[in-house]
Amino acid sequence: MKFLFNTGRTIRQGKYIESKLGQGYAEETSLCHIHPLDLLDLGVDEGENVLVKSEVGEVVLEARADEGLPMGMVFVSYGIHCNSIISACTHGTGMPDFKIHEVDICFTSEQRKTPAEILEQLGGVTYAGN
Amino acid sequence: MQEIKDMVCPFCGCLCDDVTLEVENGKILSTDNCCTIGNAKFMGKNRLKNPIKKVDGAWVDITYDEAVNTAVDLLLDADRPLLYGWSGTHGEAQCVGIHMNEILGGVIDSTTSVCHGPSILAIQEVGHPGCTLGQVKNRADLIVYWGCNPIEAHPRHMSRYTTYADGYFLDNAFRNRKVIVVDVRETETAKVADEFIRIKQGGDYAVLSALRAIIRGKGDMIPETVAGVTKTQLMQVADMCKTCSFGALFFGVGLTMAKGKYKNVRNAIELVDELNRHTKFTLTPMRGHWNVYGANEVFSWMTGYPYAVDFCRGVAFYNPGETTAIDILARKECDACMIIGSDPAAHFPRQCVEHLRDTPVIVIDPFQSMTTSFADIQIPVAVTGIDAEGTAYRMDGIPIKVKKAIDSDYPSDTEILTRIYDRMLEVKGL
Amino acid sequence: MKTLLIKNAYVIDPIQKISGETMDIAVRDGKIVDDVKNPDQVIDATGMLTLPGGIDSHTHICGTKVNFGRYMSPEDMRAGRTSRKGDMHATSGYSVPTTYGNSYRYSRMGYTTLLEGAMAPMEARHTHEEFRYTPLQDCLANTLFDGNWFALEAIRDGDIKRLAGIIAWYLSAAKGFGVKLTNPGGTEAWGFGDDVTCINEPIPHFGITPRDIIVNMIEANEMLNLPHSVHLHCNNLGKPGNYMCTLDTYNAIPDLNDKRQSLYSTHVQFHSYGGSSWNDFCSKAEDIARSVNDKPQITIDTGQVMFGKTTTMTADGPMEFNLYRLYHNKWSNHDVELETGSGIIPVHYRKKNLVNAIMWSIGLELGLLVDSPWQCILATDNPNGAPFVKYPEVMALLMSKNYRDAEFETLHKSTGKRVILPSLDRELTWDEIVTMTRSAQARALGLIEYGKGHLSEGAEADIALYPINVDTTDPARDYERIINGFSTTEYTIKRGEVVCRNGTCTMESNHSTYWVNPHVPPAYDMGTDAAFIDGFNKYYSMRITNYPVGEEYIGRNVCMESEASL
Amino acid sequence: MMKVILEVKERHKPTLPIEAECITPKNFLDPERVFHVWKGNKELDITEVFHVRKDGNAKSADQVEIIIRGDSSNIKRVGEYMDGGRILIEGSIGMHCGNFMSAGTIEIKGDADSWLGREMHGGTILCHGNVEDYAGSGYRGEKKGMTGGRIEIMGNAGDFAAETMAGGEMIIHGNAGDMPGIDIKDGSLTIMGDCSRPCGNMSGGKCWIFGTAYDMLPTFRNEGQTSVDSVPVTRFSGDYISRGLGMVYTANHKYME
Fold first, then answer.
1. pLDDT for B30-88, tens place per residue?
2. Measured between alpha carbons, how far is residue C513 from residues C116, C181, C508, C560 in Å?
3. Which positions in chain B touch A115 (Cβ < 8 Å)?
4. Which residues of C touch D142 (CB under 8 A)?
5. What is residue C121's three-state secondary structure?
6. Does domain A2-121 have CATH number 2.40.40.20?
7. What is the reported pTM?
8. What SS3 class is residue B145?
9. What CA–CA distances, in Å, run from C337 to C120, C202, D176?
10. Helices marked H in C266-409 — which ranges?
11. Residues of chain A above pLDDT 70, percent
12. What integer best gives the mean pLDDT of chain C?
C-alpha cells in the first residue's frame, strides 16, 4: 500500500540520543506509527513488522497503532532506520524531504535490524568500547 | 554532596537556566527542574576514554598529540574539506572553527542546514518579526504552534514561556491565553490545544496563503476547503489572530522540511507582517540543538553568513543547496570531513553516509556516536554544561553562559580545536 | 618598554588647542611621553596631517541587532569580500560588514575608538563577544533603558535614587558604558504594537510620559557621576513635523554638568523634519540648530544620510515598522523583554528621491548651522544614514561649498524649495573637522581624562597620520584630496603600535573594552534588593544569577569606577 | 572567427567540482591571458582540467565560439558574466552556467545543473536536456531573478524555476517541478507540461501552463475561460496575497482540497 512517510523528534528518541547504540534508541527509532484502520487494511497487527520501501531504499520497522495520524500517513522517529529510505535530494535548499516521502508498505516476517547492524552493513566499524 | 542551582541545560534551544544539580566526587548524582531529555543528557554515561584511530579496519587507542597531528594532516591534505556540526558546541569553539576554515579553504556548515536553514533563507527574503521569549510570557494572549511539537521536542517550552507561564500582563496564563496548534498529525501538543488545525501533508503554503488573503479582506475568494482545512475554521482562526492583543507564532521543522521548504516559512512571516497591521504579532523558529542559533550568530559576525559558508576560494561564498552538508556529501564534493557536535551518520540520508564512509573523517565528540563507525579518528572532549563552559544562544537570540558543574581531564572543544588550529598554522608556516 | 618616535608631524589637537604645529611625538608603552631615547621605531611624518585617533561616538557595529542585519542580508555580503591575508582575517559585507570588516575599515580611516550605540542589557554578552572580534579599536557600549520596567516603575514612584541604583546595577551587569534612551516609552508601547507621539503622551500601563523618563534619567545619570551623559534617540524619529517634539525635548533638558553636556542627542538629522506629511516634508535644521546654539547642555551628532544602499537598524521598533510600510522591503523586529525593542530594514537612499535629498541636506545644514563644533559631532548613525566608510565624503562636503553645490545639482529638482543648504556659505576649517571627528567625541563621552581624543603627555597613543599636506591643500577646491586623504591613513597607531599601514592592517589585535561601575550605597544596591530580585526572576525568562556578563567576556578591560552621590 | 575547443580531461578526485568562470568568449580575445580554474581550494591552470585548442582569430566576443566536450557535468560557473559570443556544451553542465549573462548564446546538448542563468539579464540559453532547480532564479536575499533574455528548456525543469523572475522569458517544454514562478514580478514563463503550485506570491508577470497545474493555490481568482493558440485555458489573476497583478493561464488545474 502507498503511504506518505513522515519523520520527527520524539521524547524517547531525545532521551536516548547520547547512547544511540543502546537498546532504547534502537527500539524507539525503528517503530512505524500507522493509523489503526490502515493496519487493518495492511493485515498487520501491532507489534508485527512491516517492510517500508522508497525510491532510494527499504527498511524493516515494527508497526505501532497511532490514532493521531491521518490515514495514509506513517510516522517514524528520527534515526538511522528512517534515513535508510530518505532521499538526499534537497531541491536546492540544503534540506532533504524529511517530512514527505512516498513509500510502499507491506507486511514482512523479516526481523528489524539494530542500528549497529545497519552501520556494519553500510561498511562502518563499530568501536567495541574501552 | 553539593547542590548547584541555576545551571543551564545543554540539550535544546530552550536553554533552560534554572536546573539544579546534585554533585559529588566529580559526578552528577541527580537533576531537578529538568525535562526527561535534559536529565538524560546530564546523567549521560559511557564517555570515550581517549582518542582512537582506525588502523586496518580496527580501532586502536592513541594520544591526544597523535590525534591532533593526524587531524591536521588529513585536513591539510584535502582539496575541499567539510567542517560540519557545531550546534553541539559553544561559541568560543565555533570561532576557532571559522579561523581554521579561513586557512584551510574548506566549507563550514552547521546542523542548521537540516533544521531551520530554510527559515533563514526565508528571513533573508522578507525579514523576521520576532521577540525574546519573556516578551511572549509576559504579554501573549494567543500562541500558535505550527509544524512543531514542543511537548516532545522542547518539553519545557510551554511551561516556561507560553501556555502555562504566568506573566506581567497575564496573571492566570492558562485561562487567559488561547493556544492554536497546526500540524499534519494530532501530536501530544495538538491534544492540549484550544484549536487544532489538521493540514494535509504539503498543504502549509496554501493554508498560509488562504489566511493571508482572509486577513487582507479577500476571504470571499477562498474555497470551502484548503488542504483539508474548512473555510469556517480558517475564518475563525484569522479572527482569533486579528483580535488578540499579542500573538506569538512558533514554528518547527514541520514547515522547513515539508514540500516548498523555506517558501512555507516565508509565507508564515508575511502572514505575521500582515497581522502586525492589526495587532502585535511575532514569530519564532523552534530551534533544536541547544546552540544551533549560536552557530548562526558566530558564523554571521565572523563570515557574514549564518551557515553553509564555502571558503575554498579564500573569500566567503554562501549558497545553501550547493554549500550545505547534505548536498556536498550526496554529490561527493568533499574529500575530508571534520565532524564536531553532531552525528550525521544518524541524521543524514544514507547516500550522504556512504560518502562519509569513503572519505577521511575526524570526529570530535565525547561519546561514541554513529558517525564514529565511519571515522578515521575520534577525539573525546568535555561536555559543555557538564565539564566545560562556554557561550550559547537561545532560540530567541539570548546569549547565555553555559556553566560547568564538574572538572574533568577532558579538553574542551575550544582547547582541542585551538591545538589543531595552532598546529595547522605551524605546518603552514603562518 | 616599547618606544616610538613620530618626527615632524603636522599636528592638530583641539583639546590641547594645537592648531597646526609641526612637532615630534614620543611614545612609550602605549602612552604619549615627553621624549624617548633611542626609540625602537621612528616614523618620519613630514607632510602628514597627524591627529588623535578618530572616535565614533554613535555607531552600530556589534551585537544582536547588527548581527541580525548580517544574518538577514546575504545580498549585502556580496560586496566587500576579502580573504585571509597576513594578519588580516577574511571579511564580507558593505553596510553590515563582519566584525573584522568593520574593524579594518575603521582602522584604515584612522579610527581607534568606537561606541556601539545601542545594547540591550539582556543581550550584552553578545555585544561583548563581537567586541572581542573587533580587534583594532577600543569599544564601549551604550546600554538601553528606554523601556526598562524597573526603571519605569521607579520613575512612576518618584524614587530617583532607586532609579540610579537600577541604572548602576544594569550598567555593571551588562558591562555597559552609557545610558541610552531610544524612543523612551515608545519601545514599551510597541510591546503591544503601539507607539508614543510626543514627550507628553502617557505610556500605556505605566502612567508616565517620555518627558518623565528623559528628565529623571538625566538626573539619575548625573547622580551616578558617569563619564557620559544620557544619550538620547528622541521620540518620533523619521516623521514629518517631528522637529517640534525635538524642540520640546531640548527645552526640558536641565544643565547639570560643567565638564560636558547633560544630553547627547543622537542622529538629529532624523529628528529635524518639518511638514505635516511626506508631501510637504521640509528641513527644520535651522530651528534645531538655533535651539542647540542656545543650550550648552546639549551636544548632538548629525546622523548624516549619504546616497546609496544601506541597512537601517535601531532599538526603535515602531519606527522601523513604519519605515517597512513605506518601503515594503524586508522587515525584522526583535523586542527584548522588560527592556527595549529593535528593528531592521534595508533602504536605498536615492538622489532623485525628494525625501532622501532633503534628508541629505538636513544633515549638512546641521553641521553648518550649529556654531560650535564641540556641540555637533560628525556621524552617519552607521549604517542607518550611510556606512561609516562615507565619513571622508561628509568631511569634504562640510569643508567645501563647491563640492556641496556640485552634488546639489544632481539631486531631485525640488530639493531647493525645501531646504536652505544652498544659501549656506560656511566651510568648516581643519580644526573644526578635527573637533567633530574626535575631540568633541572625547569630551562628550567623558574620555578626555582617560587619555582619549588628544595627544597630551600621558594620553593613550592612539594616533592617525593622514597623507594630507595641509599647507598645500585647499579643501574648498581639492575636495577629492580630502576624501582620499581621510579614507586611508599612512599609519594608524593604536596604543603605540602601528595597526594599519596604508590600508593594510598589521596586527591581529590591540584593544580594550571600557565599561562603568558606579558604586552606590547598600540601600540602593539592586544585587541585594529582594523586591528587585523577585521581580526579576518572575518576569524575565532568565535567572538573575545568569544575567551579569562576567569579566571573561572582555579581554583587556578598563573599568571606569565612579562614586554615586545618592 | 575564433573557435575554442575545451575537452575535459580525466582527473584525480573527479567528483570534486571545478569552478571555471573564466570560460567566457570575451576572455579568449586576449592572447596573453592566463586561464585559471579552481578545484576546491587549489587554483589550477586550465590545461590541467581541459585540453585546450584555439583556432582562428577574433576581434570581438561575438566572433568567439567555445565548445566544451567530455564530462562537464560538475564544472560550475561556465559563461558567468558572458556578454557576447557562443558557448556550445556537448554534454551536461554544472551549476551556475550563464550567471549574470547579458548577451550571447549558450547551448547545452545534455542536462544543466541548478541555477542555470541565475540573475541573467540578456542573451539566450538553450538546454536540450533537463535542468535542475532554480533555473533563471535570483540569489539568496535578493529581490530579483532573471530580468531579461531567454531560457529555453527542451526537457523538464526542477523546483523553483523562474523564482523571483523580474523580466525576460522562460519556456519549459517538459514538466516543471514544484513552485515554478514563485514570487515572480514580471516576465513570462511558459510550461508546456505539468507543474505544481505555480506562481505563489506573484506580483506581476504572466505564466502559461499547457499541462496540469497541481495543487493550484487558493488565492488566485478564476477569471473564466479563454484560449491561447486555440488551446482552451482558464485565466487566473493573482496572487491576491500580493498585489494580484499577475496572470496565470492553465489548460488544467487541480486544487488541494
1. 999 999 999 999 999 889 999 999 999 999 999 999 999 999 999 999 999 999 999 99
2. 11, 21, 16, 10
3. 346, 370
4. 75
5. helix
6. yes
7. 0.98
8. strand
9. 10, 20, 46
10. 285-294, 317-327, 354-369, 391-399, 401-409
11. 99
12. 97
Nine-digit cell string for C410: 544632481
| C-alpha span between C514 and D47 (Å, rounded) | 56
Q: What distance in Å separates residue B218's CA from the closest CA in chain A? A: 30
Chain C residue numbers touching D143 (CB-CB < 8 A): 329
Burial of C39 (0-12, 13-18, 19+ CB in 10 A): middle
Mean pLDDT throughout D44-50? 98
Name all domains of chain B by residue range, CATH numbers in brackets: 48-115+290-428 (3.40.50.740), 117-285 (3.40.228.10)
Query: Domain segments of chain A: what residues?
Result: 2-121
Which cell numbers hold the place of B225? Answer: 476547503
Q: How far is D222 from chain B (nearest CA, A)?
A: 9
Residue type, B152: E
| pLDDT reading at A130 higher than 70 | no
Beta bridge partners of residue B2, listed in sequence order: B23
Alpha-carbon distances of D204 from D151, D183, D195, D241, rounded to whole Å: 19, 9, 19, 12
C-alpha–C-alpha distance, residues C28 and C40, integer Å: 10
Pairwise CB contact (< 8 Å): C192 & B280: yes
For residue C66, the tally of other CB atoms under 10 A from its CB is 31
Cell of A110: 523479516
Question: Which chains lie within 8 Å of chain D at 3 or more CB pairs, if any?
Answer: A, B, C
pLDDT > 80? residue A129: no
For residue C275, pLDDT over 60 is answered with: yes
Q: Residues A103, A106, A110, CA angle at the centre, nearest 5°?
A: 115
* pLDDT score of C555: 87
- Which SS3 state, helix, strand or coil, does residue C557 take? strand
Mutation target to probe the B interface, by most B beta carbons within 10 A, among C71, C84, C192 is C71
The bridge status of strand A2-8 relative to strand C376-377 is unpaired
Q: In the structure, what pLDDT confidence band is assigned to residue B375 with cuts at 50, 70 and 90? A: very high
What does the pLDDT read at residue C1? 62
Greatest extent of chain C over all pairs of C-alpha atoms, in Å? 68
Residue D117 φ/ψ, nearest 5 degrees: 65, 30
Q: CB-based burial of residue C151 (10 Å sphere; 0-12 exposed, 13-18 middle, 19+ buried)?
A: buried
